[in-house]
Sequence to fold (275 residues):
Amino acid sequence: MYSILLCAIFVSLIFLVVLTILNVKKKSKKSSSSSGETCEDETCETEKCENKSCKKKSCKKKSCKKKSCNKSCTEQCRGPRGLPGAPGTASNTGATGAAGDTGGVGTTGNTGLQGNTGLQGNTGNTGPSGSAGGLLAFADFYASMPGDNASTVAVGAAVDFPNDGPNSGGAAISRLSASTFNLAAIGVYEILFQVSVTEAGQLVISLGGSEIPITTVGRATGTSQIVGLRLVQTFSINQVVSINNRTGNSTALTITPIAGGASSVSASLVIKRLS
Fold:
């Protein structure tokens, strides 16, 4: 077994030696066939260009004085320039880059020309009717002496105005009794009264059963009428109004008959609703 293996190894070695010898001879032959090429450069003396070196696009020099000889030899060994290659295929489009920062605000442009006047719009709907102007209601009540107010008016009691004068009609301002009157609607009212009395005294407007202190008027002597004019406001419907002998006084008041002459005199109460 071992003798067979040794024989195989020996035969392989012999085969390798033969191949090596043949290869050396082949190289020697090629070298001798190319020894006739010389480097045509005036700066070289005996430089030769070898075929094998020309395949690698380089020139081996043996006795060159300048480097330009090597370059000249290489140019003689190089073959003709080939045709340009075909253009390569376009590469894929790259990913979109990140958005840049927002630029600064530009300067304000010039003001443009004024445009033409637009067409007139349609007439709007009619608005709701406003409240009636002037007086909303009015009424006049009076007394005539002698005859009316025959008795004195006690402290805290009301003066009688038993007769009706001109009025706007309806229930806005109406009579409840000889001395009390009803204000039907919420609003502002003007109240004017004048009464001739014999004694020094005071009269006041009473609204809803309560006297209104700021409406108090009076006199200190027996030579003039008591006259009052005020605006009052109601905050609920059907408020009762009267003209009273002010509470807290000590004297009952006599409504003077035939004051200042031979004729009967009147006491009057005028009420107007303003709003």
About this structure: Residues 32-69 have pLDDT under 50 and may be disordered.
